[in-house]
Design brief:
Blueprint lengths: L1 E7 L3 E7 L6 E7 L6 H12 L5 H6 L7 E3 L9 H19 L1
Antiparallel strand pairs: 1-2, 2-3, 3-4
Helix pairs in contact: 1-3
Length: 99
C-alpha cells in the first residue's frame, strides 16, 4: 500500500492511499493546525511498534473510514465495513497505542 501525505497552505493536508486491496481513496483537505496529521502519526507509531492490524493495516485490507472518498468514482465492491467488523478490536488497540 502507498500512502501520500500532502501539506497544503493554511495548516491543511490531504492523504492519498493507493495500491491497497480496495479502491484508491483520499482524505480530502483537513485542517491540522500546527501539529502532525493524525493519519501520519498513526503510520509512524504503527510502523515503529510493528502493528500490522491497526488503522493502516485495516486500510490496506480494504477498510474505508469516514472522510475518505474514492479517487475514481464507482462502486466499492468489497465492503470496508466487513474488514472493520473482523478486525475492529485490533484497530481500537492501535488507536490507544497511538494516543
Amino acid at each position: 500500500m502507498e500512502m501520500s501525505f500532502r501539506k497544503l497552505p493554511d495548516d491543511q493536508h490531504e492523504i492519498l492511499v493507493r495500491a491497497r486491496k480496495g479502491p484508491d481513496v483520499r482524505l480530502l483537505v483537513q485542517p491540522v493546525g500546527p501539529t502532525m496529521p493524525n493519519g501520519l502519526v498513526h503510520a509512524v507509531v504503527e510502523t515503529d511498534l510493528g502493528i500490522d492490524d491497526g488503522f493502516w493495516g485495516a486500510m490496506a485490507r480494504g477498510a474505508t473510514f469516514q472522510g475518505f472518498e474514492l479517487v475514481t468514482p464507482g462502486r466499492h465492491r468489497r465492503s470496508g465495513m466487513k474488514v472493520l467488523r473482523r478486525g475492529g478490536a485490533a484497530v481500537m488497540a492501535a488507536e490507544l497505542s497511538v494516543n
